[in-house]
Structures are given as C-alpha cells and as structure tokens.
C-alpha cells in the first residue's frame, strides 16, 4: 500500500544549476464525479474520467539555482515569476504559491531555485472550462522532470504516479490529467490499484465502442464560476444526502467496470447522465443552495433527449459544476451528432461557441 510518505525523497544523487522543460497536460471530463473531499485533498468518493485531447495547458518551466546569500526569509521562501500568454499575471500567483507550499515536503529542492513559469491554454481563457486540472498537471510534470535530473534513478512508474500525486495537491481533478485514456482516482474495492493518492489508468479491458469517444463542449455560459470548486466540495460536509451519494459513486463505478467491458453504450448513457444530474442535485440541496445550470443548459439537455429518442443515436451529456454541456458520443456517429449540434444546439451556446474534443492519452513532454 502506498502512503504519502513514499513520495518524500531521501537524498538526491545529482545537482543541476539551470535549465528548462516544457509539458502539455490535457483537461479531463469526469463520468463519475468527484464532489466532496477530506483533508489533504483526499476525495470523499472515487471518480473516473475521460482524458481529453485538445483542451490543454502548455507550461514551460525555466529554473535557475538561487543565490544562497539572500536569506530565504527575505524572499518569503519561494521565488518564481508567472507568465500567462507571455505576460506577467500577478493574480495567478497566490494559487501557485499555495501549491508550492503544499508540495514542498515532497520536492525539497523547490526553494533552491528561481522558477519562471510560462503557461497558456489551447482553449479560450474565459470559456468557463476549468484550467486548474490541466494547469496543475502540466506544472507537476515539469517539477517531476526536474526531480528526475536530481535523481536519475527514478522509474517511469514513480515519475507518473508522483506527478499525479503532486497535481492532486494543486487541484483534485488534476491528478486525472496526467495519464489517458480513462483514469480512476480514489480507492474502490473492485478496481485494482485504485488509490486516493493519485490517478491510475483504468485497469481493465475497454470495449472498442469507447475508443476515440468524442466530447463536444457547448459553451453556454463563459462567465466566472458562480461557486468555486473549493466552496462546492465544502458543501458536502453536513450535506443531508452526502453519505448516500458517496456510496452511489462506488456503485456507479461498479456499473462502469461492466459497461467498459461489454460495450453497452445505452447503459453507459444512464450512468453518465445520472451522475451529471446528481452532481447538480447535490448543489441544489446543499445549504446554501445553488442552481448552476442556465435555461440554455436545460434546452440542450431536452434537445439531446428528443434527438436520441427519435434517431436512436447514442449521444448523451455530462456537466461540470457549471452551465456548459459536454456532449459525449462514439466516433462512428460523429457526423450525425455534429450536424445535430450545428442544426439544433449552437443557438443555445454563447456566441455560438463550442469546442470539439475527444479522448486523449495524457501529458506530453514537448
Ligand atoms: C465537478 O478538482 O476543481 O469537476 O480539488 O478543489 O481543486 P479542487 O476541485 P476540482 O473539482 C472538480 C469537480 C468536478 C467533478 C470532477 O471533475 O470529478
């Protein structure tokens, strides 16, 4: 059994003065949702997601050994510059600083270097698509590349597990953005190797019906999130339905294990849509309560149900903690669904905007 202490390095065998790395990491879309957490970013229930392919964060990390004559107390510990789309972005720094504080015990070299973190997303910034998963994963990959220079002996397995472990400490769902194509995070008794500490690739057979599964993201509301995920997760403490909901996530994962094996897309749709609506139901029944869907979210859901009933095309939806709709469908109905989206759903999107994505393989060194 892994514990967090397994990721605390004992000694480093090499030294390095300066250099740089660049990694991209994708976003992911949860099928069984992570909603509710314990201390230290431990999830209240297991979750599973499709790793995406096109919605990514690309992060370059330049590092340089610091002048040790400057006392660390003067520089407040960490030293880094943050560039977003090539320009300094002060408002992102507190989040990064908090991340560095959380991971320092696992990467004891962090205060020895000055870092320049240069990052951008391949999707529009104010699209309502969360960049914390891809962003934290991309940064974690870069830090692991540096750790590998300091300790060349670490294995690939350790590299990816620890990258996911670190990403989790930045943002829970980020731990599912390191690997592809289907990633499980959180201990579940029938999923071998599953752990609360990091995301693992789905360990069993996945039917060809789910190969290249498509996700078209309909941008219904591109505004700032009404409820931050931190506040949202907190709402599950003392929530009247929390325990039942956490148990249901385990059951839904059991169902997905069977579905991924037998390729039953009809059953897949039931689990995935129910999960999305349950996530929103949790927010509607918390105190304080929120409605995160917009009228157009419901219009889209109803249009998808009508289209599916009439055509038997196996298209379904899922939602994040917001109003945007992820439209999920097998690759072999891509043309029909894209035509349906253009004909009937684009009108419900803000400025007619949507993003075509599909299952992907995870973080990549550039
Ligand atoms: C609704 O990973 O953003 O997207 O750990 O507080 O950073 P923090 O939360 P975050 O929560 C994501 C919640 C979700 C469901 C999911 O992705 O599983």
UniProtKB/TrEMBL annotation:
The keyword Transcription does not apply. This is Diphosphomevalonate decarboxylase. Keywords: ATP-binding, Lipid biosynthesis, Lipid metabolism, Lyase, Nucleotide-binding. Residues 25-190 form the Diphosphomevalonate decarboxylase-like N-terminal domain. InterPro entries: GHMP_kinase_C_sf, Mev_decarb, MVD-like_N, Mvd1_C, Ribosomal_Su5_D2-typ_SF, Ribsml_uS5_D2-typ_fold_subgr. Residues 217-345 form the Mvd1 C-terminal domain. The gene is mvaD. It comes from the Bacteria.
């Amino acid at each position: 059994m892994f514990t967090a202490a397994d990721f605390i390095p004992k000694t480093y065998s090499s030294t390095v003065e300066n250099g740089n790395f660049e990694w991209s990491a994708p976003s992911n879309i949860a099928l069984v949702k992570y909603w509710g957490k314990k201390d230290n970013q431990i999830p209240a229930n297991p979750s599973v997601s499709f790793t995406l392919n096109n919605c990514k964060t690309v992060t370059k990390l330049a590092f340089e050994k610091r002048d040790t004559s400057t006392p660390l107390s003067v520089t407040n510990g960490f030293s880094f510059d943050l560039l977003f789309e090539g320009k300094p972005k002060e408002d992102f720094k507190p989040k990064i600083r908090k991340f560095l504080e959380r991971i320092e015990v696992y990467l004891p070299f962090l205060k020895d270097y000055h870092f320049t973190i240069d990052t951008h997303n391949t999707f529009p910034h104010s699209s309502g698509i969360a960049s914390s998963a891809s962003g934290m994963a991309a940064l974690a990959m870069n830090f692991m590349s540096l750790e590998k220079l300091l300790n060349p002996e670490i294995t690939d397995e350790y590299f990816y597990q620890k990258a996911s472990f670190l990403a989790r400490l930045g943002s829970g769902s980020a731990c599912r953005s390191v690997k592809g194509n289907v990633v499980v995070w959180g201990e579940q008794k029938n999923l071998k190797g599953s752990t609360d500490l990091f995301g693992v690739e789905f360990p069993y057979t996945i039917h060809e019906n789910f190969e290249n599964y498509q996700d078209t993201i309909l941008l219904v509301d591109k505004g700032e999130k009404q409820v931050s995920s931190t506040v949202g997760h907190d709402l599950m403490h003392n929530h009247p339905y929390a325990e039942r909901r956490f148990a249901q996530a385990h059951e839904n994962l059991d169902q997905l294990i069977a579905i991924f094996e037998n390729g039953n897309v009809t059953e897949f749709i039931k689990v995935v849509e129910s999960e999305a609506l349950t996530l929103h139901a949790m927010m509607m029944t918390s105190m304080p309560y929120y409605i995160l869907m917009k009228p157009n979210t419901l219009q889209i859901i109803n249009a998808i149900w009508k289209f599916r009933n009439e055509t038997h095309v196996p298209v379904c939806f899922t939602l994040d903690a917001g109003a945007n709709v992820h439209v999920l469908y097998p690759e072999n109905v891509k043309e029909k669904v894209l035509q349906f989206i253009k004909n009937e759903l684009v009108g419900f999107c803000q400025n007619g905007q949507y993003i075509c994505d599909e299952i992907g393989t995870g973080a990549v060194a550039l």
